[in-house]
Amino acid sequence: MVSNISLGSDAIFSCGDAVIKQSGTLTLANANFYSGTNSVQLGALCLANDGNTNSTLYLVSPASIVNFADSSSVTWSNEPMLIVEGWSGSLFGGGAQQIVFGNNSNALTSTQLAHIQFHNPAALTNGIYPARILSNGEIVPSTGGALVASMALQSQPGGMQVTLQGEAGRTYTIETSTDLVHWAPWTNVVNSTGTMTVTDAAAANYPARFYRARLLP
To answer: Are both 118 and 211 inside the same structural domain?
Structure first.
């Protein structure tokens, strides 16, 4: 448990297997920060200038979860970038690997967000991708277009299990139909983690039942 952490030029900080709770500010100035195998809780992030050189956040474990405090009130330098390496989370958020600022999309300013880039993120063509922040504060690579939610169905003894993968922190309405023409609202759900599952216990009462999801404002 520590307060402020300041990493200067070419410094390396590795979380390893430690459990870290930081209450102050984490300053990166031409430094390298390595995640660990545990979820760590860090203070607000300050991206500082040390020779106009970028800092790097390495995600070294498929289970790495790095939580920063709300950093929107911290002044960042204009020149350096924060480069994220080794990201293999979910574009919708809520994957096994996460980088989260605060608990909402206001935890970073638009200027700060423009100083974060993902290098060769998994499941995307190799390259540099800008960051976008989800409504729950998680940052993910931006593909330049809207992400289409996906849905999967699996029959269970208690009914039809509906799994929706969509943007974390957003509310979706799931509608049902028996003919793909007439649709009726079934349930509204907050997709807090990016993937959510609900069960339709009434599915067996219909010869055919179809589902669709719509993102609510």
So the answer is: no
